[in-house]
Design goal:
The chain contains three helices and seven strands, in the order αββββαββαβ. By secondary structure, it is of the alpha+beta class. The longest helix is centred in the last third of the chain and has 15 residues.
Length: about 160
């Protein structure tokens, strides 16, 4: 990271940013071309390692790519604030972002898929945690992707710099 003064290493701060995010973007390689997909997600923290769960259709370009290469990068960002200035080059954007690399596994076991969907739903509806969801009519029509994070960085550009 070039701007180490903006790097965030505190894991709790990284989790707070992740909690606020409502979209994760995954980057895949389709032959020689990059392919970026925004997805809804949920995550769990397993002893300091993040694992993201995303859902999608059972077929499509993303699934085809992942079957060939499960290596991905990811990005999520929050708290955007545009800073205007009298001169064009003085404009800036404040933000918080988390980026990293990992591998995606396509979950096939029903129990694993239900776990992933539950974690995803809890991310958007934290007040409902620990109450069961009924996924019975969707589970076979839905692919659940499990992204195990291998490395990540976090960067914050704050208005109080």
């Amino acid at each position: 990271m070039r701007r180490t003064d903006r790097e965030v290493k505190d894991f709790q701060a990284i989790l707070e940013i992740t909690d606020k995010a409502d979209v994760i973007r995954i980057g895949l390689i389709d032959g020689k071309l990059p392919y970026i997909v925004p997805l809804n997600f949920g995550y769990e923290n397993i002893a300091g390692q993040l694992v993201f769960y995303m859902h999608c259709a059972n077929e499509g370009r993303k699934i085809d790519i992942l079957k060939v290469s499960p290596n991905v990068c990811f990005e999520l960002d929050v708290d955007h604030l545009l800073k205007e200035a009298p001169q064009a080059c003085g404009w800036s954007m404040f933000f918080k972002s988390v980026m990293g690399y990992g591998n995606i596994e396509i979950l096939t076991e029903k129990a694993d898929k239900i776990k992933g969907l539950t974690i995803l739903m809890d991310h958007y509806n934290p007040d409902r945690k620990s109450k069961p969801y009924d996924f019975s009519q969707f589970i076979d029509k839905t692919t659940i992707l499990k992204l195990t994070v291998e490395s990540l960085t976090c960067k914050v550009k704050s208005p109080v710099e």
